[in-house]
Amino acid sequence: MQVSNKKPMLADIRGQQYFDVPALAVSAGVNESVINRMLSGLPVQLYQAELVLSALSDETGKNYTLDNVDVVLIPEHNDDTEDLNLMTDDVTKEQTNTYILDAESPTEMARLIDLHRVVTQAMGGPLAGVSELPPEAKVLDMACGPGGWVCDVAFERPDIEVAGIDVSKIMVEYAYACARTQQLSNASFGVMDITQPLDFSDGTFDLVNARFLVGVLRRKSWGQFLAECTRILKPGGILRLTEPIDAAGITTSTAYESLSLLVCQAFWRCGYGFSMNGYTLGMTTRLPRMLRQAGYHDVRCMAHTLEFSVDCHLWKDLYNNALAGSSLIHPFLEKAGVATQQDVERLVARMHLEWLSEEFCGMWHLMTVLGENQKL
User: Fold this and answer.
1) Hey, which of 122, 216, 219, 326 has its CA 20 to 30 A from 99?
2) What are the DSSP calls for 310-363, one per residue?
3) End-to-end CA distance of the chain
4) What is the CATH number of the domain that holds 97?
5) Domain check: are 97 and 66 in the same one?
């Protein structure tokens, strides 16, 4: 009699040893639909399969891995191929706006306005970490969004010129209106695409600032971006970049953690960030060395933390940010092939309840990297 060497599928295992799908999903930190897909023999992400099998092993006391369980996997992203093979044709051809969210959305504008306030406060002010700028210095904010940072700096330093650029005309118009309302004659804004050569002369700025470009620049664009920053900075000028260490905070909410992991996977598959496997964004690990390789000196890092546990004043701000971001992110996740709108909606519903728990804890970690442009 021949003995079959065929590996069992998850459905075969469940037929021999029953397990509760909702409970296993919570234990694994994934959506129930992932386990149901595995039970039906449909493809799932590698990291999802590993999480489910690890949780199943803990629950049953048996060793279940991809070596002994048959799981259909979605092909992984290959950096040797085009970054956006997984995106739809209209997205692959788009050159003028690589932002992962809808920059024209009023919801996104409101989210960015509030996020600027809480992040700037956590960082210690708009110019934290920057040496005193000389009078009449020129400052540029890349991908400025609604212009909050530009207006803050222009108000704090009326003796310098502060400019902001963004690909979104609506964002720039709003920023300009805010500056005029605050009578900030030293603040200006323009529509420009930071993935393209910028309409500034060589050696124009004393400081170039940007935050959260991980969702704007694809990984293959960073070299060109840094070269352009170097070109427009004066010798001895400062480049100041702030990026998240973790996608949007680490929490005690299993639904939020699952959603954050889906975001990291989508970034990785669509060519954003520098993660090796899609479990993180990978930005802050690479950024300091990238600046040194681009010729910057005195490269240094500043860490920032935002606690948003349920008993902290930032809880409401980050809760609203999470809800707004979740409502905007699902088209990107769908195009990346990591989740459907229904998957996201179910996770958000659970997240809402978990964030309201008296035991909810959350912490968001950011890092600012500063480097000095090489002097002549």
Assistant:
1) 122
2) TTSTTHHHHHHHHHHHHHHHHHHHHHHTS--HHHHHHHHHHHHHHHTSTT--EE
3) 81
4) 3.40.50.150
5) no
**The domain that contains 16 carries what CATH number?**
1.10.260
Which residues in the chain belong to E strands, given as ranges?
A: 138-141, 161-166, 187-191, 205-211, 233-244, 250-251, 297-307, 362-372
Q: Does residue 60 sit within a domain? A: yes
- How would you classify residue 69: left for phi > 0, otherwise alpha for psi between -120 and 50, otherwise beta? beta
Same-domain status, 56 and 104? no
* Same domain, residue pair 157 and 287: yes
The answer to whether 328 touches 283, Cβ cutoff 8 Å, is no
Q: What is the pLDDT of residues 211-241, one digit of tens each?
A: 999 999 999 999 999 999 999 999 999 999 9
Task: Count the domains in the chain.
Answer: 2
- How far apart CA 360 and CA 125 sit, in angstroms, is 28
In the numeric block, the tokens 């306005």 are attached to 113
Pairing of strands 205-211, 250-251: unpaired
| Tens-place pLDDT, residues 171-217 | 999 999 999 999 999 999 999 999 999 999 999 999 999 999 999 99
The residue segments making up the domain with residue 164 are: 93-372
Residue 316 lies in a domain: yes
d(CA 373, CA 1): 74
Q: Give per-residue pLDDT as tens, 297-328.
A: 999 999 999 999 999 999 999 999 999 999 99
207 and 103 part of one domain: yes
pLDDT value, residue 96:
61
302 bridge partner residues = 368
